[in-house]
Structure formats: structure tokens, C-alpha cells
RNA sequence: GCCGGGGUAGCCGAGCGGCCAAAGGCGGCAGACUCAAGAUCUGCUCUCGCAGGAGUACCCAGGUUCAAAUCCUGGCCCCGGCACCA
């Protein structure tokens, strides 16, 4: 089919309004959504996967008789549109290329420099591409998350979440640029010029008071090791600053002082020359002892507080630094506490863990030795030693009883942090794991926000309900279902609003804040149901009040007074018809973000009977490098990922759709490979040709062969249906695009030709093609159905008669072909062939014997004597006793590998005779002769007949080579 | 370390107790078609074979079973997520 024809069918679907949803109580409904895309740029083929899945499912269910609803929208919230608008402003080359490709007039580009306009523009461009992909979206429900009606909906949602106690306020430590304002630290964050992958590291600030009343504040990730401190490290030259906090004076590095002010208040004071500290002593918390302060190059003033507590027993770097000291300095350091963490025997160490701790000395010394870290210059080895030892101690270590009972390390750490807090100390210092620089070149910092609002996902009761919802879900793939409970458990309170420049809905409890984008996309399938009423003008935005939504979604209250009772009820009825949502479809990136919060929100807002019913997670189409497709993979050069428009022009929608569906299971990434798409398109060409041939008039085939084809069609259709029902579109595609053609090809090689049966089957086939390759289906079905194929009923297996005898006959023949082939192969390799094929059908008594053999209990081989005993009870077999014994003796040892075949339900000889023509062609023999084993006069030059078994004829190729 | 997944023929990838020497695809070989190439179609593609046979196979080692790629135990390795990491 010409790719250009696809547009024709897209127009037809639109003009016949196939995509429009109808509330039809006489029918079951199907309602699924795909995670809507964010307007970050132009769609690429990576986006296609979820859309294709969703569309094919909706198309299947529509044909299967359900009323379907497939809306979509644009998730304009957050930064993507802001970033895109800025790129337009900058006339960034890829954006310019995309705009040109979409045919956007250059004069209008200026309008797209405004983020909301950019979002709407991109949303429309997506819709256009969906159309070109043959995706049937009900556009009357189309919405972007910055539309005023959607905002009203989100405000209602937050009011209800607040009512339910799901919003809480607490201090929060947010990333912020001191000049530009709040900023999120994320690899995709384009407001950053550096450090997108940075994580927030939480240090514990441990106070070491000096004798002069000031306190050195060390930062550590392992406060529990404070019992092993032997000294403090400071930088050899960098001065420290005074940080005034309350009535206390702390000494920390200058950069730390500033960070502490952001997070804990106070002010930065004077600088203190560092050398004055060398050799002085500070007291150790939780212990009546003092340790010396020593300079060491291991201290980096920009990390932590510039003061490091040295625990040589457990920190390899400290151990090595200690060895590097001069003898004089060394003499000031108290003896190293051998160790303060032990490994209880109930958690045996693995081999690699034992290797890390081989030898003697403190654990840090052993780890340093094991990784080859001998000096401070061995940074990589030191890091490895540190990481491995810390992981191990955290996972399996316990505190020694002489220190603080035998607490596991994580608990001991917790307790330390708490006790510092209780003592009025600072407690925690947060910083980025690597420098983060904003787009304008300023350093991004972490600042305390005292009254941040959170979604209270850490709430145990809410989790319990959400777990319940999760358990009730149908989840594909099932592995995700196993993972989901731990994801829900792992969830903690999440900040849900922020200040700053991005798109979204103002937070109703404090409109100076914006709701963040993950939180405003959790309940939207409910709003899709309402949107058409707004779009059609029957409902005005001003009417979307809390009472309105309370009534529509919750059946609570009397509704919005300005909305007529009947309209309220109509919308409520629509919601009750389409809800619960049947399926939420999204990529694997949503496993930990969108899906869980989607469930949390539904669990919080809706009663059980309206809870969603399923999740379908798909993995990605990736670039040849195995990476997720991103801007830089897209281009027109070899190996690059083509822009979607270009791919559509090159291959057409159907080829792309089938490629997506058939190339991999949903739970698998697969690589973009233009050669495979080519091949997919060719497969479609073949299917098209086969269907057209099948539609022709002709002689058909024998009733037996037709019966077989009908039976095969019955099974294939049943399999396709059940595959769609179980959401396994790949299996469905294999049935329709691989097994179906293979079956028809066999029909043809077996002598079948176009005729009434094949035509009926082709009619069914065309409809089977429709969910996945709808354009091709329409093209082939043009004029053959009373409706468009998209609206025709999905074929029913019952339209094709099952025929066990026909199925068995064909299986029988295939088995014979296999046998013949296995003999012909070695012969043919020697360049031989034959003139005549002799076939022998087993004598009837063999059927009985096979049954006796089969009747033997499993695992227990029958004996010849037993068989003969049974044969004795059948006087009519008396004459064959010798043969029976011989046959049983030959069969018994082989029963394990070659069990009795099902008894043929047809006349083997008659069937073989009817198949002579086929066998002659298939095996290039001059002729085929069929004999009965028991007929005394039959030709049997090589005494083959006795090898015949019921269901498996004996045979002999006669004569000189041929082939 | 924890949670989840996985290791299948040259490669990708189905299968997840007997119908499995293992679907489908790629690659390879041969044939048909073609002036030729490409495309397409057909057959073959673990080893041996003296005619339907035998041997060896689904990471490794054990085990359960009449029967294991499929179930169990232990090991090794890989992937994803999380946690962790001055």
C-alpha cells in the first residue's frame, strides 16, 4: 500500500467520527490513558511506543464491541515549555529545524517565545502527529494542564487532599540560586550549566569544643565512629571562619559558614588563621577525652566544614594520612582504637568481603591494603577502600558492646544524630555531592524553607490504602507488580509546591506558590471525562467550583448551583460510566514517579469501586547505543534517529506501528534499526499481496483441506483475541502477521487456492489487521464491509468451524514429512534422490498394542509378557501373536523418548492416497504408492512395512537418485 | 548491601515441567527468479549418521521428578531501581 494512502483513511476516520466516545449503557466500556507527553520539544519515534500500544488496544476493544474512550492531553506544567520557549527565542538550530519541518511561518515564531503559547503550539503539533500515526484520539477531551479549567480541577484536587490530611507543612531544604531563585537539580534541568546529577548529601555536624569556649565543627557521614576519633584534620593553610549561631561560636571553613547560615541561620564572623590551631586539643563528644588538631592535605575546605574528624580504625583515608605524618606529629596522636564495629557471626561475610578484611590491624588498614591504597596519592584506591568498607559496615556491622551496646550501625548513626540535635547542636549540614552551577553562572546552594508543603506520602494509613489498591490492580508486566509494594513503602513525603518560574496551577492554600508537575498529573483521567462539556461550551470555567467537582467525582453535596441539575447529573453519569479507569499506560520511567502517585491519589480521593484497574508499563525504544532516545540522537544522518515526521514519510504509520509492536515484548528495550523497519514494511507488503490473492475467485480446495484451514483460522483468531485481552500485543501481532501468513502459505502449497473459504478467511484476516495496522486493513477491506474496518466487529473464532479430524490429518502429514525429511537429508547431502516413494499404513492390531503400552503406569515400563497376556484375551489377534511380540519388544525400550501417538481418527491410507500429488511435488519423487501393512500381496522390497505405527506410516524411497 | 529482573544456538530474542534440538528475526549457506545486482520466494543452518537413528546442548555445581531450558539449593556473572558513599 502506498504510504500516501494513509492520509486518505485518516480523513475517513475523522469524517466518520470513529474516535468519538459514546456513553452507551448497553455496552461495556474500555477506558485507558497514556501518560501525556510534556511539551519539551518535537515528538520522536521513542514516544510512539505507548501511543501505539494504547491505540491498538482501544481499536481492539472498539471492534470487540466495547464503547471506548481514548483522550489525551499535554502536560504543560513545569519547565519543559519554559525551556522550549527560550530555545525559540535563542533560535536554537534543532528547534528552528523542527519549526521549519512543521511548516510554521517564521513571522509567527515570536509568539512561541511565550511558554504557555509554546506549550499549546507543541500540543497541537502532537495531535497532528497522532493523526498521521492513525491514532484515534477523542479530541473533544483534549486538554493542557495550563488551561483554566484544568487549573480549577487541580485546585479542587488539592483542597480535597488537604481535607483528607494528605498535605503537611514542614521545613525543607531546597536547591536555590541565590540570584535567580529556586531551581531544581536534575539531569534534564536546562537551568543548570553544571551539576545536574548532583545529589544532596547529609553530613552530621559533630562539635569538638576547644578550651577557649569556641567549637570546631566537623562534618561526617559516619557520626557513629566518633568513638574512634584520634585527632582532627584541618587544611594546612586555609583559614577558618567563625560562625555565630545563637550564643555559640563555631569554627568552620568560610564556604561552610555561608552554607550553615543558609540552612541554620546565624551569621558569618571573623576569620581565624589556621596555624594557631595546630597542636591544640579539642574535646570529643560522648567521651572524656581530648584529641589534637593536625594539618593534612586530605582536607578540602569546600567540602563539609573544612574540619574532618579522623577515625583511622575505620576510615582508610584517615589511616593513610596518619601514616604520612611526621614522627613528631604522630607522637601527639593517641593510640588508634583498634575498632569500634564488629561483624556478628549470624551474618556471614561473602568471599569478597572477607578479602577486604584480610590480614590484621584495624579494618581501615586492612581495607587500604586490600585495595592497594598506600599513600594519599592513590585516590582511586582510597575511594574504593572507603566505599567498600563503609558499605560493609553499614550493612552488617554492629557497634562493639564497650562502645554503645551492640546496635546495628544504621541505628547507632540515627541515635548520634538525634542526640546532637537534643543537645542543641546543629545536627545536619546538607550539600551537593558535586558543584552545581546555574545557567547564569552562579553557584546553586541549599536553603532552608521553613514552611514547605508536602504531600504526606510517608503517612502509614495512606500507604495502607494505597497498598490495597495496588494489590487489586492488574499489572503488566507482573514483575512490576512484585516491585510496586516496595516502591510504595519507599515513598516519603514529597514537596509538592515551589516558587519560581514555571508553568502550573497556583497552590490554592497559598497562591504565591505553584504546584509542581508530578503532583498535578495524578488524577487527570477523571478530568478527561469532564473536559468535553467545557470544550463544547455547555459548561463554563467559572462553574468548575469545588461543589461542582464534589458532586461529579464524589457524589457529594448538591453540586454547583449555577449548573443545571440535569447537566450535573449527566456529567456525574459520564464519570460513573467511564470510571474506573481500565488501564494506565506509561513508560518504565514512570515506575517510581508517576504510577505510585497516581495510585496514592486515587486511593485518597475515590471509593474502592472507582479505583483504577490496571497498569501497563512499557520499556523504551532506544538508540543503537542502548541509550534512551534524546535530542542528540535525532537527525537524518546514518545511524541517527529520524524525526517522527521523516519516519512517517519514509515508512508510513503502519510499518512503524507494527515495528513497535512486534519487535519486542513491552518489558524490554529495543534498538531502533531502520533495516528492521524496512523489513517490517516488506512483511506488510507480503500480507497485502496475500490478502489480495485470497480475495480472488478460484477453485478453492478439497473439503478436507478447507476444513483444516477453517480449523486453523479458528485457533488463530481465538489466540489473537486472548492475546489482546491479556494485553500481550506482541503475541497478537505474531499470530496475525507471522502465523497467519504461514498458515495460508501451507494451505497453498498443499494445493489450496482462492475460493469461498479463503475469501471468508481473508475477510477475517483484514479485520485482525486493523488494531495494529489500521490503514492497511482499511485499504484491503475497502468496500467489503458495511462500515469502515475500524468499526467492524472483530472476527469471532466461532465463524470458523473447528475440526479435530482435519487438524489431526494435517499434523499427521507434517509428522510424516518430518520423518521423510530426516531420511532424505543425509541422502541428499550425498547427492541422491528417488523415483518412487512407498508408504505403509500400520496394521489395525498395532493400535490396540499402542493403547496397552500407553496404559502402563507412568515410570513403569510394561513387559512383553504383559502385552502378550493382554493379546491372549483377543482371539482375533491370535494369528498375529509372533508379530505382536516382536513389535512390543521393539517398542518397549523406546517408550520413554517416543511415546504412543494419538490414535488417528481418520482413514490413514485414504488420506495418504489423497495427498499423493502433494508428496510427489514436495519430495520430487516420480510417484507415491500407499500400501496396507496387513495385505499379504503388497510390495515391500526392503521389509519396511513392519516399522509402521499407528499415526506414523513406514516408508521407502525406491530407485536411483533424482532431486 | 537491599528490592526487582535476568544469563537460551554466531547475534537478538520467545519458551518457563513431557508436544523442545527449542517460535520469530538477524546473520550465513544453497536454490528459484534476474543479463547482473538488489528485492522477493523456497530449502538448509549443534555434531555424527551406513534410511526415520544416536550423541551433546538452554551460565556452573548439586538436587527433586518416570520426565527439567522450565521446579528447588548453592555459586559465578549481568541489568534496573533504591540505599549507601568526607
Structure description:
This protein has 963 residues and is of the alpha/beta class. Helix content is 42%, strand content 15%. The chain contains 33 helices and 32 strands. Strands 13-11-12-9-8-19 form a six-stranded mixed sheet. A five-stranded parallel sheet has the order 2-1-26-27-22, sandwiched between helices. Strand 11 and strand 12 form a beta hairpin. The radius of gyration is 38 Å and the shape is globular. The two termini are 39 Å apart. 44% of the residues are buried. The model has no long low-confidence stretch (mean pLDDT 86).
Rg (C-alpha, Å) = 38 Å
Given the C-alpha coordinates, what overall shape results? Answer: globular
The fraction of residues in strands falls at 15-25%
Low-confidence runs (pLDDT<50, min 5 residues)?
none
The biggest beta sheet reads:
6 strands, mixed
- Report how far apart the termini are: 39 Å
What is the percent of helical residues? 40-55%
Strand order of the largest sheet: 13-11-12-9-8-19
Derived structural class? alpha/beta
Query: How many H/I helical runs?
Result: 33
